[in-house]
Amino acid sequence: MDFDDVSYDDHADLFYDLAGRTVEHFRTYLSEDDTRKVLRCYQKEIAKFIHAQMEKHYWEQAEGYEVKITKGFTDLRPSAYSALADEPPLDFRRAPSDKTNISKYLFGGFQRCLYPVQKFDSDSERKLSIILDREATKWIKPARGQFQIYYKSRADYLEYQPDFVAEDSSAIYMLEPKARNMLDDKEVLAKRDAAVEWCKNATDQAKTYGGKPWRYVLIPHDVVSENMTLIGLADQYAVGDTL
């Protein structure tokens, strides 16, 4: 049985159609009596099989986002990192010898990061931190729950935690370096859309008190170089710009 060509907006219609297809499938090689016996004896296994195929192809596009502004600012949430006791933080300006496992290292030596140490998931993130520490007035890798941005993933709403947030004299930037082959991934696009909407609403709120606009910047990881500028990256890769 293969239901890859099934596409419906109405879930009830989909369920009825899949049930009918299943029955017709068994009728192609079983008698009516045997079909009933198979459906009765193996109904749980059949339901699990159908559900697995539905899960494989299921996706929902968010039609909009609920906006709730509860306060103008929040305290920085604490970040906890695990590291070996006898290994001090590495200098973030220097690439580690083992870049493939960069996430195991703890980095320090920052001048403008609001946390004393940080971890990176890729060397592109480390390079971006060099740019931010040179050009931003302050920056962070946000802890979970700091911005409370949620995106739709299948039947759930999941939290999106941006990689970097930085501020300079003209704007506040939410920056996301991402592997180039992932830029069109459905989940990446869902996170992007939620973050762009969040930045738009944050910008509108900031305008009421003369604050800075927010810009969401989705950066292909292979373009990040230490000699680039923050504004140059934002101007080239900002999405849904609020300026």
Can you walk through the features of this model?
- The protein is an alpha/beta fold.
- It folds into 2 domains: 11-57, no CATH class; 90-239, Trna Endonuclease, Chain: A, domain 1 (3-Layer(aba) Sandwich), CATH 3.40.1350.
- Helices cover 35% and strands 15% of the residues.
- The chain contains 6 helices and 9 strands; from the N terminus they run αααββαβββββαβαβ.
- It has helices at 11-27, 32-41, 43-57, 123-135, 186-207, 230-237; strands spanning 90-91, 107-108, 138-140, 149-153, 156-160, 164-167, 172-178, 214-220, 238-239.
- Strands 3-6-7-8-9 form a 5-stranded mixed beta sheet, with helices on both faces.
- Mean pLDDT is 85; it is low at 2-9.
